[in-house]
Structure formats: structure tokens, C-alpha cells
């Protein structure tokens, strides 16, 4: 089940071992060490504005360089981090990294790049969440309007009053919010309309089905038109082909993220990617 490309592929933990409690404990101990031992790394995946073809921002995606197992993807270890509570310190570490890179990107000549960070259910419900995020952005002294937090419907709908209070507090500091994996949780946008959400990310399972299922087309069209009528922008995730891109462009989707343009990559590669695109843009003018 290993993925194709060596840059983003990760060896999957043996499925059979998943059920063993001892194995879970070992993974948890390994993960605790990983946070201390600099084995965790943030990869960055560009998000492209369809109208201008410019890189609007990047999503920060965790990777674990495990000394024996190689590169491990988040789908493998985030559930363990979530169960053990380790996701809380790990999640704050990702926000700190994002803030550092945000400052660096401006120094490198890419001001205005948005940095999106995923927040898990458990981290969102950490009692010290707003306070801790406030401290991180205050210490880093960054332009908070370039920070975006991605949350899923289930994280927000679990306790709507709590979500409303937290999102408003953080939104007042300048942070914006995206609704991640939209369409998979079956909640309706109308439930969320009182929350300060500026962006909807269409789950890649719908994009994947474009061209194969008329339903996927209808759903994507509906999500885009409803989001726009509620003044929210739309990002489509998992765009891999020209055909998908063309459909999304016709539907006035605002941004796309996917292997078609770029895979998640280490920071140094992202800097090269940004440089080569801005050179190409200069040559065109
Ligand atoms: P997500 O937030 O929905 O992130 C998008 C996922 O889609 C990423 O998987 C990305 O690599 C993948 N992707 C992007 N374009 C394509 C494409 O064209 N085709 C395909 N097949 N996949 C594409 P990744 O990096 O494995 O992350 C999986 C999930 O792990 C994320 O889903 C997010 O929910 C979670 N995650 C990642 N980093 C963090 C983190 O720092 N904190 C928390 N709490 N969760 C994280
Ligand atoms: Mg996300
Ligand atoms: Mg997503
Ligand atoms: Mg996802």
C-alpha cells in the first residue's frame, strides 16, 4: 500500500500489528521521542489561484522521519497522537514552524503567502488553545492575516458554542479559518454560517470522481455556488489532472491544491519551486 513517488511516499505500518496494544504503546513512545528528537518535519504543499496562476499559499503537512521505518505519513500516526494527547504539543509545534517559515518567506521575497495549518479535534478542544496560539503568534510577531487554521466540520459541530467563541477570539487576532474535507461529514453549510469561516476546502474524494460520476460534478458545483453566495472562497483538494482542473476552472473554483501542480515538499524545495515560478512569470512579461 506504499504510495508511488519517493518524495512523498511513506512506508505503512504493518496493518496486522495495528490491533496489538503493545504496538500502539511502542508507536506512542516513538512519537514522544520524535517530537524531542527532531524527527518530525513539516512539508509544504502549494495552493494555486486559478485566476492568476499564482501560489496563494501553502498547507503545512506533518511528516515523520522515523529512524528505522523511513518517512511515515500523518494518516498513520495522527490517530495515535490524537488518542495519546500528543497531538496537542505536536500541533503547537507545527504552528510555531509555520510562523517561522512565514517570516522567512517574506525575507525571501514572497510576502503575502498564506500558511495553512491543520488543527485536530483534540487540539481544538484543548482548554488552553486560544491562549497558547495567542502566545505563539505574539512571540513570533507575524502578520496573523497570513495564518489560516483548517478544521473539519466534526471538530466544529461537536460543541458549536465553544467553536463560535474560539473562532471569534482567534479571528479577532487576524487568523482566518478554513473548513477542511468539506462534503464528507454531511453537515450543512447553513449550520456553520454564523462562524467566521472564509474558505471551504472540497474533499479530494469528490475531485477524484470527476469524469466518472455525474454526482461528483453536481456536488462540487453546488458546494462552489453555495460557498460563494455565503462569501466564502473555495479550494479543491487532490487535483491531479488537466480534466479536473478544467472543470474546476469552468465552475469558478478559486484555488486548487494537488499533485497536478505540486506535491507536499520540504521547505528548501518549496523555496526553489517559488523561485522557479516567479522567474517563469517574469520571463512571460
Ligand atoms: P488534509 O488536511 O485534508 O490534507 C490534504 C491531504 O491530501 C494531504 O495528505 C496531501 O498530501 C494530500 N494530497 C494533496 N494533493 C493530493 C493529490 O493530488 N492526490 C492525492 N491522492 N492526495 C493529495 P497528507 O499529507 O498525507 O495528510 C493527511 C491528513 O493528515 C491531512 O489531510 C490532515 O488531516 C492530517 N494532517 C497533516 N498534517 C497535520 C498536522 O500538522 N496536524 C494535524 N492535526 N493534522 C495533520
Ligand atoms: Mg487540511
Ligand atoms: Mg483536506
Ligand atoms: Mg483529509
Q: What does the secondary structure layout of this molecule look like, with pairings?
A:
Layout: H1 21-36, E1 40-49, E2 55-66, E3 70-72, H2 74-84, H3 87-107, E4 114-118, H4 121-124, H5 129-140, E5 147-152, H6 153-157, H7 160-172, E6 176-182, E7 199-202, H8 204-208, H9 214-229, E8 233-237, H10 242-250, E9 255-257, H11 267-284
Parallel strand pairs: 2-4, 4-5, 5-6, 6-7, 7-8, 8-9
Antiparallel strand pairs: 1-2, 1-9, 2-3
One magnesium ion binds at residues 59, 118, 150, 180.
Q: Which descriptors apply to this entry?
A:
alpha/beta, 8-stranded mixed beta barrel, 19% strand, binds magnesium ion, 285 residues, cyclic-guanylate-specific phosphodiesterase, disordered N terminus
Poorly predicted parts: 1-17
Number of DSSP helices?
Answer: 11
Order of helices and strands: HEEEHHEHHEHHEEHHEHEH
Query: What is the CA-CA span between the terminal residues?
Result: 44 Å
The fraction of residues assigned to DSSP E strands is 15-25%
Helix/strand/pairing class, anyone?
Answer: alpha/beta
Which whole number gives the mean pLDDT? 90
Query: What is the alpha-carbon Rg in Å?
Result: 19 Å
The number of strands is 9
The strands making up the biggest β-sheet line up spatially as 1-2-4-5-6-7-8-9
Query: How is the biggest beta sheet arranged?
Result: 8 strands, mixed, barrel
| Bulk shape | globular
Overall helicity: 40-55%
| Bound ligands | ligand C2E, magnesium ion
Amino acid at each position: 500500500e506504499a504510495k508511488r513517488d519517493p518524495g512523498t511516499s511513506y512506508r505503512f505500518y504493518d496493518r496486522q500489528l495495528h490491533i496489538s496494544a503493545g504496538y500502539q504503546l511502542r508507536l506512542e513512545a516513538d512519537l514522544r521521542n520524535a517530537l524531542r528528537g527532531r524527527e518530525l518535519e513539516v512539508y509544504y504543499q502549494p495552493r494555486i489561484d486559478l485566476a492568476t496562476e499564482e501560489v496563494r499559499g501553502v498547507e503545512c503537512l506533518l511528516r515523520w522521519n522515523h529512524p528505522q521505518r523511513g518517512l511515515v505519513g500523518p494518516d498513520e500516526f495522527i490517530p495515535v497522537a490524537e488518542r495519546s494527547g500528543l497531538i496537542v504539543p505536536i500541533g503547537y509545534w507545527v504552528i510555531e514552524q509555520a510562523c517561522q517559515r512565514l517570516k522567512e518567506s517574506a525575507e525571501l521575497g514572497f510576502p503575502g503567502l498564506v500558511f495553512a495549518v491543520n488543527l485536530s479535534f483534540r487540539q481544538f478542544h484543548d482548554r488552553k488553545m486560544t491562549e497558547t496560539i495567542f502566545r505563539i503568534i505574539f512571540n513570533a510577531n507575524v502578520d496573523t492575516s497570513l495564518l489560516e487554521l483548517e478544521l473539519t466540520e466534526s471538530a466544529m459541530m461537536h460543541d458549536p458554542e465553544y467553536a463560535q467563541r474560539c473562532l471569534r477570539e482567534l479571528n479577532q487576532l487576524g487568523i482566518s479559518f478554513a473548513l477542511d474535507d468539506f462534503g464528507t461529514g454531511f453537515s450543512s453549510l447553513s449550520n456553520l454560517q454564523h462562524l467566521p469561516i472564509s474558505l471551504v476546502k472540497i474533499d479530494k474524494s469528490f475531485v477524484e470522481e470527476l469524469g466518472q460520476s455525474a454526482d461528483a460534478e453536481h456536488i462540487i458545483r453546488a458546494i462552489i455556488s453555495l460557498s460563494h453566495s455565503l462569501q466564502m472562497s473555495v479550494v479543491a483538494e487532490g487535483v491531479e489532472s488537466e480534466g479536473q482542473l478544467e472543470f474546476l476552472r469552468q465552475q469558478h473554483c478559486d484555488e486548487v491544491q494537488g499533485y497536478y501542480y505540486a506535491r507536499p515538499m520540504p521547505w528548501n524545495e518549496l523555496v526553489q519551486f517559488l523561485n522557479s515560478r516567479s522567474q517563469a512569470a517574469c520571463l512571460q512579461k
